[in-house]
Amino acid sequence: MYGYNEPYYAFSGITPEEVAFLQQATAELDENQKNRFFAIYSTKRKNPQDILLVSLLGFVGFAGIHRFMLNQIGMGLLYFFTAGLCFIGTIVDLVNHKNLANEYNKQMAYESFHIAKMYQ
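== TM2 domain-containing protein ==
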């Protein structure tokens, strides 16, 4: 469907904005570095739908698991011990699950870029 130049469309749940961000972030990498970036980023990236599903676990007694997935350990502990801030925080995170995933994915893109850039 998409050509070899668009490997990012292989990620499930990816938005056109995320693809544009990744293309811009990897523009200065050579082909070898882009392949390395793609391999690293694909292991770190979180699908927004996965964040949504794990957030729903907050209503059955496992609040904050999605925050642990996003490397927000402090918030995860706070949510876990306060029942998702009395479910209000869990509801807010359900509404904002795409933003949470996008911010995490941007951080992982920066990390992956710097790792790929180190290898020549």
